[in-house]
Amino acid sequence: MPTHAPGVMSGTALKAVPYRQLHFDRGVRPFLVLWELTRACDLACIHCRAESRSWRDPDELSTVEVTKVLDDLAALGAPRPIVVLTGGDPFKRPDLADIVSYGTKLSLRMAVSPSGTPLATRRNLAELRLAGATAVSFSIDGASAESHDSFRKVPGSFDLTVNACREAVDLGFHLQVNTTVTSETVDQLPGILRLVSSIPAGLWSLFFLVPTGRGRLLTPLSAEQVEDVLLFLAEISKVMPVKSTEAPQFRRILVQREAGYNMVPSTPLYAQLMKDVEDMFPFDTPSHADNSGSASISSSTSAGTLGRTRSDGDNLGDGRSLGESIHSGPARRPLVVGDGYGVVFISHTGEVLPSGFLPMVAGNVKDSSIVDIYRESELLNLLRSPSGYGGRCGICEYRDICGGSRAQAFAAYGDPLAEDPNCPFHPAQSA
Ligand code: SF4
Fold first, then answer.
1. What's the rounded Cα separation, in Å, for the pair 409 and 422?
2. Is 392 in the pocket of ligand 1 (CB under 6 A)?
3. Which of 1, 91, 203, 363 has its CA 20 to 30 A from that of 306?
4. CB of 252 shorter than 6 A to ligand 1
5. How many A from CA of 176 to the centre of ligand 1?
6. 170-202: per-residue pLDDT in tens?
7. What is the β-pairing status of strands 342-346 and 32-36?
8. Residue 49 near residue 215 (C-beta atoms within 8 A)
């Protein structure tokens, strides 16, 4: 169980603040707009939130309706939000490049999250790049074709996805790779790290399964296992830019580590993940863990260690060593944003939700401006008020920088203000 860090929120115990705050009011403008342009997709992944299908819904927003929303977002002025066009597979919309181009001309930062299908070609990606998209993301849920394709239940998906990732990097996109963390995929994380670093992706995002949509068929980790994966992620963040999705307690863990607290793993998972990483990156390192089993193993798995050039010929085939492909600067500091506060989701039919994983509707862009809905929705305003959260999240000393996943709370209790069931932390007030 993580040790409590009394007084840490005062900031006095921290050498550096390991998270970033937005420089504007999260209740006035979103930082990130996730937009499910369509539910159509040629894949049928078993964890799909959107329960996608191969055909387009006739009730999808039209091109004109989409551009109206982009106009409203642009009217916010700087800093304008990042707009991520997702799905389904956004390539199923023939107007995708036009939408990207329109948003770019409005000075919106446009990103696209396609599926790993035959539509993710160099030609189609290049068209998006020309239209002004600067970032793309793809999902990789296994370190090999066998593991990825069996998780997604789509033969050939792995090769298509990895090829599309490499093309995207070659075209100058910032590449984010998303990985769904479940009991079925967790042992793949070290291998995926190696793959992601070799592509190389600019950011690795671990999405902690919310049991909704087809995701109900998968097995989530226990709260203690989630904690151990986040401890692993904190170590890996020294060598690879990472983020967590639907697990905001990662920020609490980073603060506790920065304050020098001894973060003891709760399960064997952490040690196994770290061992597997070091087996894959076999440099002349000391032992992967100290005798206490503490998570403080940074002296062995550090940027200075993984970042070394290998001498056993295991390079990437293009002259770069594995170490050279890995980030060597300061760890990326996660932003303090969450479902409905800083982040908002638009469905293919125009519904506005706090998150794609929190199925509560705040309004519809067919009826109102996205900006008005974002600012005035009672639901979104409740989600922005951590003092109104229930259970441990409501009394937690970290609630203002974490707050728990509102989507995880809703999936577990049917109440988006309930405590996050995936966090094992016991706040000081509950002691
Ligand atoms: S109890 Fe809630 S607010 Fe506190 S660290 Fe855990 S998820 Fe975050």
1. 8
2. yes
3. 1
4. yes
5. 26
6. 999 999 999 999 999 999 999 999 999 999 999
7. parallel
8. yes
| Helices (H) then strands (E): counts for the chain | 14, 11
Quick one: average pLDDT of 102-114? 97
Report the separation in Å between the CA atom of 348 and the middle of ligand 1, taken as the mean of its atom positions: 31
Contact 115, 154 (CB under 8 A): no
Pairing of strands 32-36, 82-86: parallel
For the Cβ of 274 lying below 6 angstroms from any atom of ligand 1, the answer is no
- Measure Cα distances from 428 to 3, 313, 393, 396, 422 in Å: 10, 51, 11, 7, 18
CA–CA distance from 336 to each of 181, 218, 255, 276, 369 (Å)?
Answer: 21, 28, 12, 31, 25
Task: Give residue-wise pLDDT tens across range 6-29.
Answer: 334 444 456 778 888 888 888 999
Q: Could you tell me the distance, in angstroms and rounded to a whole number, from the CA of residue 340 to the centre of ligand 1?
A: 17
Question: What is the number of domains present in the chain?
Answer: 1
Asked if residue 425 belongs to a domain, the reply is no
Would the CA dihedral through 141, 145, 149, 150 be positive or negative? negative
Which tokens in the block code for residue 378? 């009672």
Cα separation, 203 vs 230, whole angstroms:
16
State both tokens at 213.
Answer: 């949509």
- Choose which residue among 8, 261, 425, 429 to substitute to test ligand 1 binding: the one with the highest number of ligand atoms within 8 A of its C-beta: 425
Q: Which domain holds residue 312?
A: 8-325
CATH of the domain at 58: 3.20.20.70
- What is the distance in angstroms between the CA of the first residue and the CA of the last residue of the chain? 13
From the CA of 390, how far away is ligand 1's center (Å)? 11
Rounded CA-CA distance 104/98 in Å is 10
Decide if 345 is inside a domain: no
Centre of ligand 1 from the C-alpha of residue 34, in Å: 24
248 preceded by a cis bond (ω within 30 of 0) = no
* 307 or 401, greater pLDDT: 401
Query: Which segments within 166-265 are labelled E, that is strand?
Result: 174-181, 203-208, 242-245
Q: In angstroms, rounded to a whole number, what is the distance separating the alpha carbons of residues 211 and 202?
A: 28
Query: Does ligand 1 come within 6 angstroms of the Cβ of 403?
Result: yes
For residue 234, give the nearest of 191, 290, 177, 274 by alpha carbon: 274
In a domain, 220, yes or no: yes
